[in-house]
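Posting this for the archive.
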Amino acid sequence: MILVEADVDGEWDSRIDWRSIANKAARAAIAHSHHAMLADSSVQAELSVKFTTDAELRELNAAWRDKDKATNVLSFPMLDGDTLFALDVADVGEILLGDVALAAGVCAAEAGDRGIAVESHAAHLVAHGVLHLLGYDHETGPEDAEVMEATERAALASIGIADPYQAEVRS
């Protein structure tokens, strides 16, 4: 069972159901990951998604990554990928996967630059962040980046969102 908690800051458009987007994107990412068994398990896998401000993401990025700038998404895993793989889900009642945070202004600007709906881009960022919680890492090499991107594509396609990397190829 997957439990997705979401907190939405006032800078995010209140007409959009961000909690539903977080829930769908997180579940899709898990279902298409190397840890898909969590989706059908009696184990409760819990994560949180925070839709927040650029200023807060800038603070988090500076504190945790020594980068004093806003970024689109940050992930804070509770377990590393090896530990997650080593867990015997039959012996665990609950797994705290971690937290994902998205920046309102950065997300909206990137969506606008790409000519896509902000909801689609936010779903992509949630899926991307959740995959980081599960041990995926696109910065460790080209093969790992390809695996992560393929997983994102499959997850997003399953919820009706076009390939986010194809949308980046513009003339």
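Residues 25 and 123 are 5 Å apart (CA to CA). The chain has one domain: 2-158.
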